[in-house]
Write a structure and sequence with these properties.
This protein is an alpha+beta fold. The protein has helices at residues 55-67, 132-135, 142-150; strands spanning 10-16, 18-19, 22-31, 38-43, 46-48, 71-86, 89-103, 123-128, 154-158. It starts with 9 loop residues before the first strand and ends with a strand.
Length: 159
């Protein structure tokens, strides 16, 4: 396996915040193909779980770094895993856990604070849920879009 395992496996935690039929997305720059240029993509806020972190700790850290808001509560939604291949060679496996989140800006909070883009993202976008497929076009978004359609708690993808 060491010959083809060219990159460390990825473990991620991502949050879904939906308010009034809109989902919060974070704008990033990502290379979607090997050696390709970085293009603007929209993703669910979240990211890599660091060594020694639990999933919820990583999500809370990433969420604060990207949106400037604190997660009050979270609920597991689904897990997506897969393999990243380049030139028909396995590069690494990845696993991403997705959680529904509630943040402090909701109506019950004494201080209403909207999420704002922090230094780790280029911007934030509230996207109507029925239009998510128009902006979530990276290969790793397929599992989230399928989950919204079928509700299956386990999604598998290769890209």
């Amino acid at each position: 396996m060491s010959e083809v395992a060219l990159q460390q496996d990825f473990l991620g935690a991502f949050g879904v915040l939906e308010v009034d039929g809109c989902v919060l997305l974070a704008a990033n720059r990502r290379a979607l193909t090997e050696g390709g240029s970085r293009v603007r993509t929209f993703d669910l806020p979240g990211g890599r779980v660091e060594p020694g972190e639990r999933l919820d700790e990583a999500l809370r850290r990433e969420w604060l770094e990207e949106t400037g808001t604190a997660i009050e509560s979270l609920r597991f939604l689904f897990v997506q895993e897969g393999v990243r291949s380049v030139d028909d060679r396995r590069r690494y496996a990845w696993r991403s856990f997705f959680f529904e989140v509630e943040v402090a800006f909701e109506a019950r909070s004494a201080i209403r604070r909207e999420p704002v883009p922090m230094s780790e993202v280029e911007g934030l976008l509230w996207m109507p849920s029925e239009r998510l497929g128009k902006v979530l076009h990276a290969p790793y978004h397929a599992g989230y879009l399928r989950f919204r359609a079928d509700g299956q708690a386990f999604q598998v993808d290769t890209w």
